[in-house]
Amino acid sequence: MGKIKIMPCLDMKNGRVVKGVNFVNIRDAGDPAENAAFYQAEGADELAMLDIAATLENRKTRLEWVRQVSSVISIPLTVGGGINSLEDIDLVLSAGASSVSMNSAAVKEPSLMAQAVKKFGPGRITIAIDAKRNAAMKSGFELVVSGGTKPVGKDAIEWAKACNGAGVGCVLPTSMDGDGTLAGYDLEFTRAVADAVKVPVIASGGAGKLEHFYDGVVKGGAQVLLAASVFHFRTFSIRQVKEYLKSRGVEVFL
Fold this sequence. Notes:
Layout: E1 5-13, E2 16-21, E3 24-28, H1 32-42, E4 47-51, H2 63-70, E5 77-80, H3 86-94, E6 99-102, H4 104-108, H5 111-120, E7 125-133, E8 141-145, E9 150-155, H6 156-165, E10 170-175, H7 187-196, E11 202-203, H8 210-218, E12 224-227, H9 229-232, H10 238-247
Helix pairs in contact: 1-2, 6-7, 8-10
C-alpha cells in the first residue's frame, strides 16, 4: 500500500477559507495563505484548494488565490473549481499548482480527461467524484456536479471506472451525505471507488474522529486522507492524526 498521506483542504469563497456541512451552511475558517503555511509546518504531505463557488458562478478559478497559497508552501498543491479546459489547466499549473482537480467539466466532456493526461501527464490530473445515495443506480451512488447541486443520472462507480480508463493519476471521491458532518468518511462509497480503480484514492468528506482516518485507509482503501473541519477548527493537529495512525500500524510520513 505504501505510506499514507494527510491532505488538508482549503475550500475557498470570496478569498477566504470556508467550511460547510453537506456543501451548505458555510462558515469562515481563515486566511488561505496563513492556513497553508500553518499546515505545511504541522506536517501536511499535500494540500488541496477548492474554489467551491467557481462552477456555480460560471467562472474560472481565481488564479491570485493559487499564487498566494503556492508562494508560501513547498508541498504539492492540488487546485480545483471552475477548471474547464486545457488552457485553464495550464493557467492553474503556471500559477503554482502541482496538479488540478476536475469534476463538472470532465463529466460534461469526458474526452477532456485523456487530452489533459496526454498534455500534462497523469500525475497532474485528479478527478473529483461527488456522489449521493440513489437506489436507482446500480452501485447505489449517483454522480453529482456543479458543487453538489446537480444530479446527472450517472452511476458514480461506473464513472470512476471511466476516469481510471482515461489514465488520470488520482481520484477524489466525496459523498455529499457525509461532507462536513464529522460522522466519518463514507466508507461504502470510498471502498467502492477504490475497488473500481487502479490509481490512488483520496478519502474525503466527514472526518471527525481519529478513528475515521484509520477507517478511511483500512476499510475505505484510501491512500490519501483529506480533511478540512477538524484541521481548520483545531480539533486535531496533523501530527496527532499521523501519530495515531502509526500507533495502529499504518505507515505515514513523519
